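Researcher: Re-running this chain for the archive, since the previous output was lost when a drive failed. Same request as before.
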Amino acid sequence: MNLRLRLHTVPSENTEPVSSMGGWTKWVMFMLIGSEIGKAFYYIGVPPAKIFIGDVVLFLFFLLRPRESWGAWARFLVHKNEFSAFSWVLLLSVLYGVLEVICGLFYGYPLVAALELLVFNLYPAYLFLGIWAGGNHFTIVRKIMRFYAWWLAIYGPAYLLYLHKIPWTMPGSTVPIFGQPGGGGIIILALLSLERRPSRFWYLMVMAAVMMLAVQVRAEWLSTIVAFVIWGTLERKMTKVLSVAALVAVLLAAGYAADVDIPSPAQRGGAVSSREIVARGLSAISPSLAQEYTGSKDTGFYAGTISWRTRWWNAIWDSVNTSLTSMAIGNGYGFPLDNLVPYLRGVNLRTPHNIFFFTLGYSGWIGVLLFFSLQATLVFLLWRVYRLTGQSFGLALLAATVTTALFGDLFESPMGAIPYYLMMGLIIGPVLRQYVAAPHPDFERSDTADLEPVSVVLSSQHSHDPEPSNVLTTRRLGLRSTP
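Model: Regenerated structure tokens:
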């Protein structure tokens, strides 16, 4: 008879203060907060040498904390546990990335261009830093998501009304200092999922919904729907999902009734209005239908942002599936994918804004298999978290991220990959931390004095048998399933 262990986590209101989070945990928070500031944050460094803050932090973590980085990775490889699958696939991915760099050099591509793509294989190692920090500070995810919510509520309107007009860029690049805000849908989900009383944050959720609509990123809309459906289904909260859908509908109706119409940032085109928001969404299906029902004059432009990508994706598909060798290993790191279509030649655009075609174009079907296998190992870990805590936010976040990556540059860029793998580690760490090295003295724990008991319900159901130590390690989590 298998026993099913269900943990209901009840975090104390007296959560650990940020001041108690020392050492590398502050670096984790620094990197996550920086990701919300925008792409410019990850261009801090030495641009001529292609050395940036994301690369430096990961290098220093592995150099200065070998027990929690190299040591943990090696232990997961040698001793079979929950993290073994992820560790082995990551090792294969890194080795394969090195092989792709060698192939790129053999084909005559620039070394710097090849090495820039290698970070795609290295950034998943940030998971180890996230696990270590999350296992020692259970409330960090909630704190980060609260910061994201407040930042979006303040910075978002300022960006739409004024900041996007300021032409300041990061030194040595063309990246604007004031980047486009985003993530409104996931912020709403996080507040509903992680907070004891989500109603206290109604203003932040309304502002997050407003910004999600105003920024008009269709990939974000789709990923938000996917995330909410998964969360609502797994936690049986479809009523709340429908409430959020109703909120979005009310905001669109209010914008239409008030005839809100403000210029959109230059990189987005069109305008910020209910009519244009609906037009942009319908244009992905049928530009003529969008123009008929909204009267927008920009439906051709909205549809054009799709067509230039699909033509590029077709060219990548054709370039790879020409021989067995190219099908297996792709074109190699450093290959100029933008030269496959005439309208992008000389643009120096490395990513086709689709993670499938990015991995296929550079590293072939083997690269595609390794990438999605790595994500599958994370699904397994997050499923364990869900079965032990009832909290599905991690699974919803992963699904939303992968969905977004099918229409944008995320895993292949530091501003997407680094916060993603850190957040995955922070979510997994508190629940499965018994597999990680013992806490380092640099972490000053402040939460051991106010731990509240976890209620355990045993039932005779066929299921995997979670380890008893999880009863101790999931008390007072920052991740919880609200009633």
